Amino acid sequence: MREHKYRGKSIETGEWVYGYYAKLLSRGRRKPFIYSLIGEKWTEVDPETVGEYIGQNDKDGFEIYEGDKISDDVLENLVIVWSDKLHSWSFGCVENGEIYCNLSEDAALLIWDIYFGNCKITGSIHEGEK
Length: 130
Fold this sequence. Notes:
The chain has one helix spanning 105-115, and strands at 6-9, 16-26, 29-36, 41-44, 51-57, 63-65, 68-71, 78-83, 88-95, 98-102, 120-124, 127-129. The strands form two sheets. It has a six-stranded antiparallel β-sheet, with no helix packed on it. Strands 10-9-8-7-11-12 form a six-stranded antiparallel β-sheet, with helices on one face. The protein is built from one helix and twelve strands; from the N terminus they run E-E-E-E-E-E-E-E-E-E-H-E-E. The longest helix has 11 residues, at 105-115. The protein has two domains: 6-49, no CATH class; 55-123, SH3 type barrels (Roll), CATH 2.30.30. By secondary structure, it is mainly β. Strand 5 and strand 6 form a beta hairpin.
């Protein structure tokens, strides 16, 4: 069974918060929150920054989340995206901070099979490079 874990940037501090995601009623409106097991509290997060853990880690052991930019010696500036067509995580290309394409199904599946053990997270579409 895969782990359902999310991250998002706190509205209050701008720091990443990791944990369980829910939209909760706050001041009469539904807003995105993440419940962190560290500190055991709900934190309101910027909805544009919410991303799901994809169940894979990079070569340094860091968890890979939707919206992360990843690279290796051959490919660079790929961003993790959800593909409705594949019903799976896939890769998009980034240029000038914008996701401008999705790789073909065959390319995405081939890269998926061989890539994660060799890739490194280089940043996020929500912040600068690492």
